[in-house]
Design goal:
It is a single chain. By secondary structure, this protein is of the alpha+beta class. The chain has a domain at 3-142: Gcn5-related N-acetyltransferase (GNAT) (Aminopeptidase, 3-Layer(aba) Sandwich), CATH 3.40.630.30. Helices cover 34% and strands 33% of the residues. It has 7 helices and 8 strands, in the order H-E-E-H-H-H-E-E-E-H-E-H-E-E-H. Strands 1-2-3-4-5-6-8-7 form an 8-stranded mixed sheet, sandwiched between helices. Helix 5 (125-139) links the parallel strand 5 (105-116) and strand 6 (145-151). The longest helix is centred in the N-terminal third of the chain and has 17 residues, at 59-75. It is globular.
């Protein structure tokens, strides 16, 4: 990647509080310095089974992904965090498909998306990091609604949404095709008011 592109990534201005520290995790914006740490994960086909991208074939592709994530932030269409344990990347949590308005409608919604490397799963890292991003989304970014989608044949992703307090909306039949197989999507959502109630009822805000 050229020095011009690398400079573009690191000079992006992020909102106050974008660097998040939870009990066990650090969440921060991705940079080109993360390419080597992400490489073992983004080349793993086990991670991408139900995702909209394929395992990376080169580090140039990973650099391009980091650039795209930061471009999305700059455009206000997506917000992304590298999830680190002991300063080692184990996954990414994102707010994607950001929609603020549609003509005269105010929407202020986004999709919460997450992946954690297989060797770091079943330890609550997806839930812990996502909970922090949810708080940031409602408290700092002014979202009214967050949604989670997952393939119905990937129930472990749905368990994360349920632990986070998302409501099941329903199932979209044959929502996407990958590797010649059609998959159904489960849809969950959470309103800002629902998050506020959970916080009021005793759910700790991980960003405070």
């Amino acid at each position: 990647m050229s020095s011009e592109n690398a400079s573009k990534i690191v000079e992006i201005t992020f909102p106050e509080g974008y660097l998040i520290q939870t009990e066990r995790l650090t969440l921060r914006p991705p940079t080109v310095a993360d390419v080597d740490g992400l490489w073992p994960h983004v080349t793993n086909p086990e991670i991408t089974t139900f995702l909209a991208w394929e395992p990376h074939g080169s580090k140039d592709e990973t650099q391009g992904m980091v650039q795209a994530l930061n471009d999305a932030h700059q455009a206000g269409t997506g917000f992304h965090w590298i999830v680190l344990v002991n300063q080692q990347p184990i996954g990414i949590v994102s707010l994607i498909d950001v929609r603020r308005r549609h003509r005269s409608w105010v929407l202020n919604r986004a999709e919460l998306a997450y992946w954690i490397a297989p060797e770091s799963q079943s330890q609550g890292f997806a839930t812990e990091s996502s909970r922090a991003v949810i708080s940031f989304a409602f408290r700092r970014l002014g979202f009214h609604k967050l949604m989670v989608y997952h393939a119905s044949d990937n129930p472990s992703s749905g368990k994360v949404a349920q632990k986070l307090g998302f409501r099941l909306v329903g199932e979209e039949r044959e929502a996407f095709q990958k590797n010649s197989v059609w998959h159904h999507l489960m849809q969950y959502e959470m309103l800002e008011s629902e998050f506020d109630k959970r916080t009021t009822d005793g759910m700790k805000d991980p960003t405070k």
